[in-house]
Write a structure and sequence with these properties.
alpha+beta; two-stranded antiparallel sheet; globular
C-alpha cells in the first residue's frame, strides 16, 4: 500500500479560515477508500501553537503509483491551485509518498522476517518459513 501525503501550511492566524474553507474541498477531492485529515500538534519537541504555522496533512491510501498520479492530476492539483490562489504567498504545500512496510505492527512481526534493501533501493521483507 502507498500513502500519499500533502501537508498544507498556513499562518496560525489564518487557521480557522483555512480549515473552514479546506475541509469540504478535501472531502470532495478525497479518493475512494481510506483518506484522512490530521493537524500537526508537535514537531521537533515544540508544541504547535500561535507562534507556528498551522499544518494540516491530507493523506490517502492507494495500491499503485499510477493511481496516485491519476488522482493527483484530476483532484489534488486543482485543490492545490485553489489553495495557492487563496492563501499564497504566506502559505505552502508539500507532498510525499510513503510505502507501507508494516501495517499492524504486532501481527506482522510474527508473520514476517527481517527487512532489507532490494534492487533499486526498494525495501523488501520476506515471509518466515
Amino acid at each position: 500500500m502507498l500513502i500519499h501525503n500533502a501537508t498544507f501550511m498556513v499562518e496560525a492566524q489564518k487557521g480557522a479560515e483555512f480549515l473552514e474553507w479546506f475541509a469540504p474541498l478535501a472531502h470532495k477531492a478525497a479518493p475512494e477508500g481510506k483518506s484522512r485529515l490530521s493537524v500537526m500538534r508537535q514537531a521537533g519537541g515544540e508544541v504547535a501553537g500561535e507562534a507556528q504555522p498551522l499544518s494540516v496533512a491530507f493523506q490517502a491510501e492507494f495500491e499503485t503509483m499510477a493511481e496516485i498520479e491519476e488522482w493527483t492530476a484530476k483532484r489534488l492539483r486543482p485543490l492545490v491551485a485553489a489553495f495557492e490562489r487563496r492563501f499564497a504567498p504566506e502559505a505552502m504545500v508539500f507532498t510525499s509518498v510513503f510505502e507501507e512496510i508494516w501495517g499492524d505492527m504486532g501481527r506482522d512481526r510474527a508473520e514476517w522476517g527481517e527487512m532489507g534493501m532490494g534492487k533499486g533501493g526498494n525495501l523488501i521483507r520476506w515471509k518466515k518459513e
